[in-house]
Amino acid sequence: MLKGIIIDLITPTHVNGAPDYETLETLVDWHVDNASHALIVGSANHQAEILNIEERTELLRRAIWQADQRISIIADLGDKVNEQTFEYANIADECGASALLISIPAAAGLSQSRMLETIREIANLAKRPLLVRANLDNPNVGSSNTVTELARISGVSGFVDSSANTEHSQELLSLKLPSGFGLYAGHDASACQQILMGYNGSVSIVANVNPAQMQKLFNLAQAGDRAGALALDRHLQALYAALLEDPNSTPLKWALIEMGCIPEGEHPPSLSQASDYSALRRALRAAQVSI
C-alpha cells in the first residue's frame, strides 16, 4: 500500500505545448531529493485528455527511467474511459509503472453498477495496483457504499477522496475495508485533518512547490504529533489558497518558474486578473519556499 504524499505532478511543456521531457526528468530528481513518496504522471491540468497517447507514453517512460526505482511512478488514465484507456493501461504495465490512477467517469446519469463494472474491467486489465479518484461532479461517487464496493474489486488498492468534508471522511474510515486498501485525501486544504483521522496519505497539487514540507506534515501526523501537524498546516494555508485559486494551475507553473524548477520559456504563464503576483510571492516566502 502506498503511504505518504503523492504529488499530482505538473507536466512541463515547451512554448508549442509539447511536453518538455528533459525538465520532467529534472523534476523527478528534485522530488526524489525532497523525499516525496510518489509522482502521478500526466494527471495535473487534465493532461491525460490534452496529450496524445504517444506523448503520454514518452512522459511515463522518461519518468520511470529517471526514477530508477527511487520513487513510485503512477500513470494517470484520465476520466474519459474509452479504448485508449485500456491501451494506455497496457502500456503503463509494460513500462513498469508502480500503480495506475483512474478518476471515476463523470458522465451524467452513469449508474453505480455501470461505474463499478467499468472500474472492474480496468482493474482486471491493469495488472498493477489501481487507485480510484472521486470526481465530485458524479453523484454516485464517494458514498460509503461505493467505496465498500470498490474495495471488493480485485486490483483496486485505494480511493482518493476529493471531498473536504471530515464527517464524510469519518464515515469512510469506519468502514470495514481490506487491510491492503488505502484512503487518501484529495484536497490539500483538508489533507492534514484527514491524515490525522487515519487516511494513508494525500494526493497533493501544492507539493509540486514544497514537497519537503508536505512530507514533514505527513510524518508529523503519522507520528501522532497533532499539535505539530496542525501548526504546520496553519502555516501553509495561505500557500494552499494562493496556489489552488486557478483551476488551470497557472499559479503553480508561475511559482515553479520563480523557483527555477522549470524554464520560463518565451511566453511565461500569466495569472488571471483576479490573481495577485505580490500575494502569491508573499505566500511562497511565508511558507519558506525560496524564490
From TrEMBL:
Superkingdom of the organism of origin: Bacteria
Under SUPFAM superfamilies, the record lists: Aldolase
Keyword Cytoplasm assigned: no
List keywords of the entry alphabetically: Lyase
Q: Which InterPro entries match?
A: Aldolase_TIM, DapA-like
Do you know which PANTHER family this protein is assigned to?
4-HYDROXY-2-OXOGLUTARATE ALDOLASE, MITOCHONDRIAL (PTHR12128:SF66), DIHYDRODIPICOLINATE SYNTHASE (PTHR12128)
Q: Which family does it belong to?
A: Belongs to the DapA family.
Know the name of this protein? Dihydrodipicolinate synthase family protein
Question: Which organism encodes this protein?
Answer: Zhongshania guokunii
